[in-house]
Amino acid sequence: MRKLIAFALIAATLYGGYWFVGRAQVETRLTDALQQADDGPYDVQYDSLETRGFPSRFDTTITGFTFADPATGTTWSAPFFQLFALAYRPNEVIAVFPPEQTIGLGDEVYTLFTNDMRASGKVRPSTALEFQNATITLDNPRVRTASGAELAMASALAAMRLTPETTQTYDAFVEARSIVLPEDIRRFLDPQNNLPPLIQNLRFDSDVTLSAPLELNSADSTPPQITGLSITEFALTWGEIAMTAIGDIAPDATGAMNGSVTVTTRNWEDIITLAVANGMIDDNRRFLVTEIVRNLDETPHIDDTLTLSLSVTDGQLALGGFPIGPLDILR
Questions:
Q1: What is the pLDDT of residue 13?
Q2: pTM, to two decimals
Q3: Do 112 and 150 form a contact (C-beta atoms < 8 A)?
């Protein structure tokens, strides 16, 4: 019994020492990283940085945090920002955001309100810290402008993970539910209130292939480039209008895009009705536009459903074989 008690005391002492050393490492590395960012092209300020959570966690709270990128005019500020990790699994981190944050884009300032916003991420425990997965969830996010216009959603989710059995292909997923547009945008798109106030769902699922693995501690200062994008699902549902898209796009050696995307729209004539109502299509040309679109339909045998192919060859975009214009070079 004495040996068991002695062993337990020794183990507890060693673990306690590990936690205090680990806490010091966490605070030092975060402080150094923020200082390096501030010494570089960004402006980073904060009031305090403290790690607690003994004996099993590293819970770090940063208060009075502000970030600015002078080159783009982008800013972000929050009264606090928290990072949580288990002491025995420091390569998996959870981030918790405050219920109110301020985002600046050029001359525009936005306030982001959420009931709950948190993110999680995991890297491989190695020198390079290879990215494994990340998820961010927002409960009832509302983005409000300085003038009071607001974009709201019931929930939003974004996730990315390393595709199994690959080294540099990633599954990327975004979904927003019950979207309420700002009133001025809603009035422009649907001046006659033909559609319900909520956009039921917006979803995007894809596989992204990069030129190199994502690494948080990469020896290469050049970020990986996108070498392929496979859209496995794009879906938008607003009232009786439902739009989906699938396809593959990839840049060539010069960055010019090549590939095709098939877009399917249910109740597509309702979109033309909206376009006539908001003035995007002259009422006198409604029949002409409808017939042109109908002739481009690849599934005329399916009632109320329009299928079109968007193709891009050497950076030139075409719809149903009709040229539209160039796409930007990806690189």
A1: 44
A2: 0.88
A3: no
